[in-house]
Amino acid sequence: MYCVKKITDDLIWVGANDRRLAMFEGVYSVPYGVSYNSYLLLDEKTVLFDTVDKAVRHRFMENIAEVLGTRKLDYLVVQHMEPDHSAAIEELMVKHPEMKIVCNSKTLTFLKQFFNFDIDSRSMLVGENDTLPTGKHTLQFFMAPMVHWPEVMVVYDSVDKILFSADAFGSFGALNGAIFADEVDFGNDYMDETRRYYANIVGKYGTQVRTLLEKASALDIALICPLHGFVWRKNISDIVSKYELWSHYTPEEYGVMIAYASVYGNTENAAEILACRLRDNGIKTVMYDVSVTPSSEIVSAAFRWSHLVFASTTYNAGIFVTMDELLSDLVAHNLQNRTVAIIENGTWAATSGRLIREKLQKCSNLTILDNLVSIKSGIKAEQVTQISAMADALISTFPKRDSVSDIATVDVINPLSLCKLSYGLFVLTTKDGDKDNGCIINTVNQITSTPARIAIAVHKTNYSCELIEKTGQFNVSILDTSTPFCIFEQFGFGSGRQFDKFANCGYDTRTDNGIRYVPEHTNGVISAKVVESVDCETHTMFIAKVTQAFLLSQEPSVTYQYYFDHIKPVPQIPVERKQGFVCKICGYLYEGTAIPDDYVCPLCKHGAAVFEPT
Ligand code: FEO
Prior knowledge:
By secondary structure, this protein is of the alpha/beta class.
């Protein structure tokens, strides 16, 4: 039975998924399957964009028959001749004798190499910038050689602003019912497979990918339809910005990828010690045993991380076989712009370090550190010292992160200066099972617009902090200037561990993630999913991807200053003044002659800096 998906009113996905394929192209494992995308345009002329792999040809032919109905097929545009997209061409030619094949001259050559039927009489050659009117739509052709074969071209529909992008912007992974990238949690669930696809399929051709990106930048693009993976209709810059990084061989993240080959565990031991030293210094690390993890995953990780460590035993007087394969793969994929360190092992003649270095010298612009760690069987104290020196050498190449204690002392920080920063006030809501919670925070900032990300800071003692660490999700209700003080009392005073912040509130409004939000005195609501958390000593900063956002009113947002000037009651100082310090936020009185620097208000959780003497 046919299974198709509508992309626009007259463009239908007629591709298919394969979840049984073990190795894509015979070399890349695809544990989550793969999709072969084909699109059928129903204009005055009917146009099919590419076919599919032979494994899913039957479903594909059913799909076309259903969508075409009684119409004939006028054009088959062949963007890419690799057989995972061209296997059904011959069958289509037989079934649709009127069909013309729209292709470039290189494609025609390849068609003749792959097939034996008469092609010249059925082909229509196009070149750079040529156009093909199909009725309402006009298709324009752009050559994209080596993305990923020399004949590849992409097609632009200027009416619906669709870029048919061939292999570019594709991904491993079957589609599982969705067709648009924004229907799934792409960043968490599909980005790794998209990177693995890029690195392994077109990673070698960064220059050619950049040429395609430059051509695409001149087009107004509303949809990207690749030959594998999801169609992009929202946040297109998410995937384009990744392609910018990858095609320039620019690391996505600072951190160390350690790949090791260890026969009896000693080289692994060295890798583990190194990873621990790095983590002790706050450096992100990932580790791969090259005998276990497929090379394509490690190549992909090498495209992601800024620093690479290769640790290998010596084997047959050379590099261990799986490490040798990995290094060959990295060289073949043109990896560049990384800092590299090497660990070797060899019981009687360690050569792997020198050989790894020689091999990697074929890559452009790698900085290979001199700090070789050389092991003769097991790790001795001397090697631990070498590993520590290697960790220090790696760390010294990371951007410097100043710690607070490095840059200033209390004497040179006037906390009132920091109070001059403008802040809003927000109700941060969370949920764990049936338990709802909310608290007041003043630190919510938008970091990026595409992808939309925000950062919030929450005191570590807050129950909300614990819930976010556990669930990775939260809502922010942006308070407006109509907010009465009782809202701050409701959410700001006391802990959700002891009582229900929503008791008797009279509403139960929730966003798509199931978390409550405050519908009153609130001008906007943001839902977000945590992508990273940063330990900031007293607080945890959560960097989160915005998953939903909507407006509730046009009232101005309340600022910290507005709260002080118009909302917060003047603290009731007893007639008999007690000596102490009053919290400027909530009025709590700390009794004593001096307030400790690390004091935290038990009611509103603000620090000693916001207390003033009575
Ligand atoms: Fe999906 Fe280069 O073929």
